[in-house]
Amino acid sequence: RTGVRCQYVTTAINVRNLRKVYPGQPPVVALADASIQIRDNEFFTLLGPSGCGKTTLLRLIAGFENPTSGSLEMHGQSLIELPPYKRPINTVFQSYALFPHLTVAQNISFGLEMLGKPKAEIAATVDEMMALVKMTEMADRQTSQISGGQQQRVALARALAPKPKVLLLDEPLSALDFKLRKDMQLELKRLQTETGITFIFVTHDQEEALTMSDRIAVMSAGTIRQIGGPRDIYDHPAERFVADFIGDTNFLKADVVSVAGQTAMVRLASGQTIAARTPEGADVAGSVTLAIRPEHAGIEAGSGGLLSGTLGEVVYFGTDTHYHVALPDGTAFVVRQQNRPDRADDLATGDMVSISFAPDVGQVLRD
Ligand code: ATP
Protein backbone atom coordinates (compact mmCIF):
# COMPACT_ATOMS: atom_id res chain seq x y z
CA ARG A 1 0.00 0.00 0.00
CA THR A 2 2.91 2.36 0.67
CA GLY A 3 4.13 1.41 -2.84
CA VAL A 4 6.90 3.53 -4.33
CA ARG A 5 7.31 5.65 -1.19
CA CYS A 6 8.59 2.55 0.59
CA GLN A 7 12.06 2.66 -0.88
CA TYR A 8 12.69 6.10 0.69
CA VAL A 9 11.44 5.16 4.12
CA THR A 10 14.18 4.40 6.61
CA THR A 11 13.80 2.86 10.03
CA ALA A 12 14.79 5.23 12.83
CA ILE A 13 14.16 2.97 15.80
CA ASN A 14 14.12 -0.79 15.49
CA VAL A 15 12.69 -2.60 18.50
CA ARG A 16 13.04 -6.39 18.31
CA ASN A 17 11.66 -8.88 20.83
CA LEU A 18 12.16 -6.32 23.57
CA ARG A 19 11.30 -7.64 27.00
CA LYS A 20 11.20 -5.94 30.38
CA VAL A 21 10.52 -7.81 33.58
CA TYR A 22 10.47 -5.81 36.82
CA PRO A 23 11.64 -7.89 39.79
CA GLY A 24 9.12 -8.62 42.55
CA GLN A 25 6.92 -11.32 43.99
CA PRO A 26 5.66 -12.19 41.43
CA PRO A 27 7.81 -10.42 38.80
CA VAL A 28 5.94 -8.03 36.47
CA VAL A 29 6.28 -8.62 32.73
CA ALA A 30 5.79 -4.99 31.67
CA LEU A 31 6.85 -5.63 28.07
CA ALA A 32 6.64 -9.08 26.50
CA ASP A 33 8.86 -9.46 23.43
CA ALA A 34 7.61 -6.38 21.59
CA SER A 35 8.77 -5.63 18.04
CA ILE A 36 8.22 -2.32 16.22
CA GLN A 37 9.97 -0.44 13.46
CA ILE A 38 9.53 3.30 13.82
CA ARG A 39 10.36 5.27 10.68
CA ASP A 40 12.28 8.48 10.22
CA ASN A 41 10.11 11.63 10.31
CA GLU A 42 7.03 9.87 11.53
CA PHE A 43 4.56 10.72 14.25
CA PHE A 44 4.27 7.34 15.91
CA THR A 45 1.89 6.70 18.80
CA LEU A 46 1.90 3.99 21.46
CA LEU A 47 -1.74 3.58 22.45
CA GLY A 48 -3.21 1.34 25.10
CA PRO A 49 -4.93 1.18 28.48
CA SER A 50 -3.22 2.02 31.75
CA GLY A 51 -0.51 -0.47 32.68
CA CYS A 52 -0.07 -1.99 29.19
CA GLY A 53 3.63 -1.08 29.04
CA LYS A 54 3.68 2.16 27.01
CA THR A 55 5.82 4.12 29.44
CA THR A 56 8.12 1.15 29.93
CA LEU A 57 8.78 0.97 26.19
CA LEU A 58 9.43 4.72 26.09
CA ARG A 59 11.81 4.52 29.06
CA LEU A 60 13.71 1.67 27.39
CA ILE A 61 14.11 3.75 24.21
CA ALA A 62 15.26 6.75 26.29
CA GLY A 63 17.69 4.58 28.26
CA PHE A 64 16.15 5.18 31.71
CA GLU A 65 15.64 1.41 32.00
CA ASN A 66 17.62 -1.57 30.72
CA PRO A 67 15.78 -4.32 28.86
CA THR A 68 15.66 -7.86 30.23
CA SER A 69 16.24 -9.17 26.69
CA GLY A 70 15.83 -8.22 23.04
CA SER A 71 17.43 -5.58 20.87
CA LEU A 72 16.98 -1.86 20.39
CA GLU A 73 18.68 -0.10 17.49
CA MET A 74 18.74 3.38 16.04
CA HIS A 75 19.73 3.59 12.37
CA GLY A 76 21.31 0.16 12.68
CA GLN A 77 23.36 0.94 15.82
CA SER A 78 22.52 -0.71 19.13
CA LEU A 79 21.35 1.78 21.76
CA ILE A 80 21.48 -0.62 24.66
CA GLU A 81 25.02 0.16 25.83
CA LEU A 82 24.55 3.93 25.47
CA PRO A 83 23.61 5.98 28.57
CA PRO A 84 20.54 8.24 28.09
CA TYR A 85 22.54 11.44 27.57
CA LYS A 86 24.53 9.90 24.71
CA ARG A 87 21.41 8.89 22.79
CA PRO A 88 20.23 11.42 20.16
CA ILE A 89 16.84 11.22 21.84
CA ASN A 90 15.02 13.61 24.15
CA THR A 91 11.92 13.28 26.32
CA VAL A 92 9.00 15.53 27.19
CA PHE A 93 7.49 14.43 30.47
CA GLN A 94 3.88 14.69 31.57
CA SER A 95 4.95 16.95 34.45
CA TYR A 96 6.98 19.27 32.13
CA ALA A 97 9.77 19.39 34.80
CA LEU A 98 10.60 23.05 34.17
CA PHE A 99 12.72 25.17 36.55
CA PRO A 100 10.11 27.54 38.05
CA HIS A 101 12.57 30.28 39.07
CA LEU A 102 14.17 30.47 35.61
CA THR A 103 12.72 32.42 32.69
CA VAL A 104 11.30 30.87 29.55
CA ALA A 105 14.53 31.62 27.66
CA GLN A 106 16.73 30.29 30.49
CA ASN A 107 14.74 27.05 30.66
CA ILE A 108 15.28 26.51 26.95
CA SER A 109 18.99 27.39 27.03
CA PHE A 110 19.78 25.33 30.15
CA GLY A 111 20.29 22.00 28.36
CA LEU A 112 22.34 23.61 25.60
CA GLU A 113 24.66 25.18 28.18
CA MET A 114 25.10 21.78 29.82
CA LEU A 115 26.13 20.43 26.42
CA GLY A 116 28.77 23.19 26.27
CA LYS A 117 27.48 24.80 23.07
CA PRO A 118 28.99 28.19 22.09
CA LYS A 119 27.09 31.22 23.46
CA ALA A 120 26.13 32.63 20.06
CA GLU A 121 24.77 29.29 18.91
CA ILE A 122 22.74 28.94 22.12
CA ALA A 123 21.21 32.40 21.70
CA ALA A 124 20.25 31.67 18.09
CA THR A 125 18.74 28.28 18.97
CA VAL A 126 16.76 29.71 21.90
CA ASP A 127 15.30 32.42 19.61
CA GLU A 128 14.48 29.83 16.97
CA MET A 129 12.78 27.54 19.51
CA MET A 130 10.78 30.33 21.12
CA ALA A 131 9.51 31.34 17.67
CA LEU A 132 8.71 27.71 16.85
CA VAL A 133 6.45 27.34 19.90
CA LYS A 134 5.18 30.95 19.70
CA MET A 135 6.64 32.04 23.05
CA THR A 136 9.00 34.82 21.90
CA GLU A 137 7.02 37.52 23.72
CA MET A 138 7.26 35.61 27.00
CA ALA A 139 11.05 35.11 26.84
CA ASP A 140 11.75 36.88 30.14
CA ARG A 141 8.77 35.59 32.11
CA GLN A 142 9.49 33.11 34.91
CA THR A 143 7.90 29.75 34.12
CA SER A 144 6.05 29.85 37.47
CA GLN A 145 4.19 32.85 36.04
CA ILE A 146 2.85 31.37 32.80
CA SER A 147 -0.17 29.15 32.12
CA GLY A 148 -0.17 25.35 31.87
CA GLY A 149 -0.44 25.46 28.09
CA GLN A 150 2.46 27.90 27.88
CA GLN A 151 4.54 25.70 30.20
CA GLN A 152 3.84 22.83 27.84
CA ARG A 153 5.19 24.87 24.92
CA VAL A 154 8.34 25.73 26.86
CA ALA A 155 8.86 22.07 27.78
CA LEU A 156 8.57 21.22 24.08
CA ALA A 157 10.95 23.98 23.04
CA ARG A 158 13.48 22.84 25.65
CA ALA A 159 13.29 19.23 24.46
CA LEU A 160 13.59 20.23 20.78
CA ALA A 161 16.46 22.70 21.33
CA PRO A 162 19.35 20.16 21.16
CA LYS A 163 17.80 18.94 17.84
CA PRO A 164 17.35 15.32 18.84
CA LYS A 165 16.66 12.79 16.09
CA VAL A 166 13.82 11.34 18.12
CA LEU A 167 11.50 13.03 20.61
CA LEU A 168 9.66 10.90 23.16
CA LEU A 169 6.44 12.35 24.57
CA ASP A 170 4.80 10.65 27.55
CA GLU A 171 1.16 11.80 27.76
CA PRO A 172 2.30 15.42 27.43
CA LEU A 173 -1.23 16.82 27.06
CA SER A 174 -2.96 15.06 29.92
CA ALA A 175 -2.71 18.01 32.33
CA LEU A 176 -4.39 20.43 29.92
CA ASP A 177 -8.11 21.19 29.77
CA PHE A 178 -10.15 19.93 26.82
CA LYS A 179 -10.00 23.00 24.58
CA LEU A 180 -6.28 23.60 25.11
CA ARG A 181 -5.63 19.94 24.57
CA LYS A 182 -7.34 20.05 21.16
CA ASP A 183 -5.27 23.10 20.17
CA MET A 184 -2.03 21.49 21.36
CA GLN A 185 -2.78 18.30 19.41
CA LEU A 186 -2.69 20.31 16.18
CA GLU A 187 0.29 22.28 17.43
CA LEU A 188 2.30 19.15 18.17
CA LYS A 189 1.50 17.74 14.76
CA ARG A 190 2.67 21.02 13.19
CA LEU A 191 5.90 20.98 15.24
CA GLN A 192 6.61 17.43 14.16
CA THR A 193 6.04 18.24 10.48
CA GLU A 194 8.09 21.45 10.63
CA THR A 195 11.08 19.97 12.45
CA GLY A 196 11.02 16.57 10.69
CA ILE A 197 11.97 14.98 14.02
CA THR A 198 10.55 11.51 14.70
CA PHE A 199 7.97 11.77 17.49
CA ILE A 200 7.09 8.78 19.65
CA PHE A 201 3.97 9.77 21.53
CA VAL A 202 2.34 7.86 24.39
CA THR A 203 -1.37 8.15 25.12
CA HIS A 204 -4.31 6.12 26.37
CA ASP A 205 -6.67 8.43 24.49
CA GLN A 206 -7.74 6.79 21.24
CA GLU A 207 -9.14 9.97 19.74
CA GLU A 208 -5.86 11.78 20.36
CA ALA A 209 -3.99 8.90 18.70
CA LEU A 210 -6.27 8.89 15.66
CA THR A 211 -6.02 12.68 15.20
CA MET A 212 -2.26 13.09 15.42
CA SER A 213 -0.48 9.95 14.30
CA ASP A 214 1.03 8.74 11.07
CA ARG A 215 0.96 5.26 12.59
CA ILE A 216 -0.26 3.76 15.83
CA ALA A 217 0.81 0.69 17.79
CA VAL A 218 -2.08 -0.58 19.90
CA MET A 219 -0.77 -2.27 23.06
CA SER A 220 -2.32 -4.50 25.67
CA ALA A 221 -0.72 -6.30 28.61
CA GLY A 222 2.86 -5.77 27.45
CA THR A 223 2.26 -6.85 23.86
CA ILE A 224 1.77 -5.02 20.56
CA ARG A 225 -1.65 -6.04 19.22
CA GLN A 226 -1.72 -4.13 15.91
CA ILE A 227 0.32 -1.51 14.05
CA GLY A 228 -1.11 0.65 11.31
CA GLY A 229 -2.27 4.06 10.14
CA PRO A 230 -5.25 5.60 11.97
CA ARG A 231 -7.72 4.68 9.21
CA ASP A 232 -6.34 1.20 8.95
CA ILE A 233 -6.64 0.58 12.68
CA TYR A 234 -10.11 2.11 12.88
CA ASP A 235 -11.62 0.58 9.74
CA HIS A 236 -9.84 -2.76 9.93
CA PRO A 237 -9.15 -3.74 13.52
CA ALA A 238 -7.54 -7.17 13.43
CA GLU A 239 -8.80 -8.43 16.76
CA ARG A 240 -11.49 -7.91 19.34
CA PHE A 241 -9.31 -5.97 21.78
CA VAL A 242 -8.39 -3.38 19.12
CA ALA A 243 -11.96 -3.12 17.80
CA ASP A 244 -13.23 -2.64 21.33
CA PHE A 245 -10.55 -0.22 22.56
CA ILE A 246 -10.76 2.11 19.55
CA GLY A 247 -14.19 3.58 18.93
CA ASP A 248 -17.46 1.72 19.39
CA THR A 249 -18.04 -1.57 17.66
CA ASN A 250 -20.80 -4.13 17.17
CA PHE A 251 -19.76 -7.77 17.35
CA LEU A 252 -21.71 -10.36 15.37
CA LYS A 253 -21.24 -14.12 15.24
CA ALA A 254 -20.90 -15.43 11.69
CA ASP A 255 -19.84 -18.60 9.85
CA VAL A 256 -17.18 -18.54 7.17
CA VAL A 257 -18.45 -19.97 3.89
CA SER A 258 -15.39 -19.28 1.73
CA VAL A 259 -12.20 -17.18 1.69
CA ALA A 260 -10.42 -15.55 -1.27
CA GLY A 261 -7.42 -13.34 -0.45
CA GLN A 262 -8.41 -10.79 2.17
CA THR A 263 -12.14 -11.29 1.62
CA ALA A 264 -14.34 -13.90 3.26
CA MET A 265 -17.96 -14.76 2.52
CA VAL A 266 -19.65 -15.13 5.89
CA ARG A 267 -23.16 -16.27 6.83
CA LEU A 268 -24.95 -14.18 9.44
CA ALA A 269 -27.38 -15.59 12.01
CA SER A 270 -30.20 -14.22 9.83
CA GLY A 271 -29.13 -16.70 7.12
CA GLN A 272 -27.87 -13.98 4.76
CA THR A 273 -24.35 -14.21 3.33
CA ILE A 274 -22.12 -11.14 3.02
CA ALA A 275 -18.51 -10.30 2.08
CA ALA A 276 -16.20 -9.18 4.90
CA ARG A 277 -12.51 -8.28 5.26
CA THR A 278 -10.11 -10.68 6.97
CA PRO A 279 -7.03 -9.72 9.00
CA GLU A 280 -3.67 -10.05 7.25
CA GLY A 281 -1.94 -13.37 7.79
CA ALA A 282 -4.80 -14.93 9.76
CA ASP A 283 -6.43 -18.27 8.92
CA VAL A 284 -10.15 -17.70 9.14
CA ALA A 285 -12.55 -20.61 9.16
CA GLY A 286 -15.63 -21.88 10.97
CA SER A 287 -17.33 -19.67 13.49
CA VAL A 288 -15.90 -16.14 13.65
CA THR A 289 -16.71 -12.74 15.11
CA LEU A 290 -17.45 -9.88 12.76
CA ALA A 291 -16.90 -6.25 13.82
CA ILE A 292 -19.12 -3.53 12.37
CA ARG A 293 -18.86 0.14 13.33
CA PRO A 294 -22.20 1.72 14.36
CA GLU A 295 -21.84 4.50 11.77
CA HIS A 296 -21.28 1.99 8.98
CA ALA A 297 -24.76 0.52 9.39
CA GLY A 298 -28.10 1.91 8.28
CA ILE A 299 -31.51 1.45 9.90
CA GLU A 300 -35.11 1.64 8.68
CA ALA A 301 -38.55 0.49 9.68
CA GLY A 302 -39.49 -3.04 8.64
CA SER A 303 -37.69 -6.35 8.48
CA GLY A 304 -36.14 -6.73 5.03
CA GLY A 305 -32.44 -5.92 5.73
CA LEU A 306 -29.42 -8.06 6.52
CA LEU A 307 -30.48 -8.14 10.16
CA SER A 308 -33.72 -7.31 11.83
CA GLY A 309 -34.65 -6.73 15.43
CA THR A 310 -36.58 -4.65 17.90
CA LEU A 311 -35.65 -1.04 18.49
CA GLY A 312 -34.80 -0.26 22.10
CA GLU A 313 -33.33 3.04 23.25
CA VAL A 314 -33.00 5.94 20.83
CA VAL A 315 -30.39 8.43 22.09
CA TYR A 316 -30.06 11.88 20.56
CA PHE A 317 -26.52 13.38 20.54
CA GLY A 318 -26.95 16.56 18.50
CA THR A 319 -24.74 15.59 15.57
CA ASP A 320 -26.05 12.04 15.49
CA THR A 321 -28.56 9.62 16.98
CA HIS A 322 -27.77 6.17 18.40
CA TYR A 323 -30.31 3.41 17.85
CA HIS A 324 -30.00 0.40 20.16
CA VAL A 325 -31.47 -2.69 18.50
CA ALA A 326 -32.03 -6.10 20.09
CA LEU A 327 -31.46 -8.89 17.53
CA PRO A 328 -33.55 -12.10 17.80
CA ASP A 329 -30.67 -14.04 19.44
CA GLY A 330 -30.38 -11.37 22.14
CA THR A 331 -27.30 -9.63 20.65
CA ALA A 332 -27.32 -5.86 21.03
CA PHE A 333 -26.52 -3.85 17.89
CA VAL A 334 -26.06 -0.09 17.77
CA VAL A 335 -26.61 1.97 14.63
CA ARG A 336 -25.38 5.56 14.54
CA GLN A 337 -26.99 7.92 12.04
CA GLN A 338 -25.97 11.48 11.36
CA ASN A 339 -28.78 13.92 12.10
CA ARG A 340 -30.03 16.24 9.43
CA PRO A 341 -32.65 18.94 9.93
CA ASP A 342 -34.39 17.81 6.73
CA ARG A 343 -34.71 14.20 7.85
CA ALA A 344 -37.48 13.35 10.27
CA ASP A 345 -36.79 10.77 12.94
CA ASP A 346 -39.75 8.46 12.50
CA LEU A 347 -38.46 5.42 14.42
CA ALA A 348 -39.68 4.75 17.94
CA THR A 349 -38.81 2.32 20.72
CA GLY A 350 -40.57 -1.02 20.20
CA ASP A 351 -40.58 -0.78 16.37
CA MET A 352 -39.46 -3.70 14.23
CA VAL A 353 -36.40 -2.38 12.38
CA SER A 354 -34.08 -3.66 9.70
CA ILE A 355 -30.32 -3.05 9.67
CA SER A 356 -28.16 -3.01 6.57
CA PHE A 357 -24.51 -2.35 5.79
CA ALA A 358 -22.31 -2.32 2.72
CA PRO A 359 -20.59 -5.64 1.86
CA ASP A 360 -17.04 -4.53 2.70
CA VAL A 361 -17.52 -2.79 6.04
CA GLY A 362 -17.56 -5.92 8.20
CA GLN A 363 -14.19 -7.01 9.57
CA VAL A 364 -13.52 -10.62 10.57
CA LEU A 365 -11.52 -10.62 13.81
CA ARG A 366 -8.53 -12.81 14.60
CA ASP A 367 -9.15 -15.30 17.43
P1 ATP B 1 -0.02 4.28 32.29
O1 ATP B 1 -0.85 4.68 31.12
O2 ATP B 1 -0.86 4.06 33.52
O3 ATP B 1 1.15 5.16 32.54
P2 ATP B 1 1.62 2.30 30.96
O4 ATP B 1 0.95 1.64 29.81
O5 ATP B 1 2.56 3.38 30.65
O6 ATP B 1 0.54 2.79 31.99
P3 ATP B 1 3.80 1.07 32.39
O7 ATP B 1 4.02 2.25 33.27
O8 ATP B 1 4.79 0.82 31.33
O9 ATP B 1 2.34 1.13 31.74
O10 ATP B 1 3.68 -0.21 33.32
C1 ATP B 1 3.55 -1.53 32.82
C2 ATP B 1 3.46 -2.51 33.98
O11 ATP B 1 4.72 -2.53 34.68
C3 ATP B 1 2.42 -2.15 35.01
O12 ATP B 1 1.85 -3.35 35.48
C4 ATP B 1 3.21 -1.45 36.09
O13 ATP B 1 2.59 -1.61 37.34
C5 ATP B 1 4.53 -2.17 36.04
N1 ATP B 1 5.68 -1.32 36.42
C6 ATP B 1 6.04 -0.15 35.87
N2 ATP B 1 7.16 0.36 36.44
C7 ATP B 1 7.52 -0.54 37.39
C8 ATP B 1 8.61 -0.60 38.34
N3 ATP B 1 9.55 0.34 38.39
N4 ATP B 1 8.64 -1.68 39.15
C9 ATP B 1 7.70 -2.64 39.09
N5 ATP B 1 6.67 -2.64 38.23
C10 ATP B 1 6.57 -1.60 37.39
Question: Would you summarize the structure shown here?
Answer:
With 367 residues, the chain is of the alpha+beta class.
Distance N to C terminus? 25 Å
Provide a count of the helices.
Answer: 8
Number of strands: 20
Using the alpha-carbon principal axes, give the shape: globular
Characteristic terms for this protein:
globular, 367 residues, binds adenosine-5'-triphosphate, alpha+beta, 20 strands
How does this model look, in words?
The protein has 367 residues and is α+β, with helices and mostly antiparallel strands. It has 8 helices and 20 strands. β12 and β13 form a beta hairpin. α2 crosses α3 (119-132), α2 (104-114) packs parallel to α4 and α3 (119-132) crosses α4. It is globular, with a radius of gyration of 25 Å. The mean pLDDT is 91. The structure holds adenosine-5'-triphosphate. Residues 22, 24, 28, 30, 48, 50-56, 204 line the site of adenosine-5'-triphosphate.
Topology, please?
Layout: E1 11-22, E2 28-39, E3 43-47, H1 54-62, E4 69-74, E5 77-78, E6 89-92, H2 104-114, H3 119-132, H4 148-160, E7 166-170, H5 178-195, E8 198-203, H6 206-212, E9 215-220, E10 223-228, H7 230-235, H8 240-245, E11 250-260, E12 263-268, E13 273-277, E14 287-292, E15 297-301, E16 307-316, E17 320-326, E18 332-338, E19 352-357, E20 363-364
Parallel strand pairs: 3-8, 3-9, 6-7, 7-8
Antiparallel strand pairs: 1-2, 1-4, 4-5, 9-10, 11-12, 11-14, 12-13, 14-20, 15-19, 16-17, 16-19, 17-18
Helix pairs in contact: 2-3, 2-4, 3-4
Bound molecules: adenosine-5'-triphosphate.
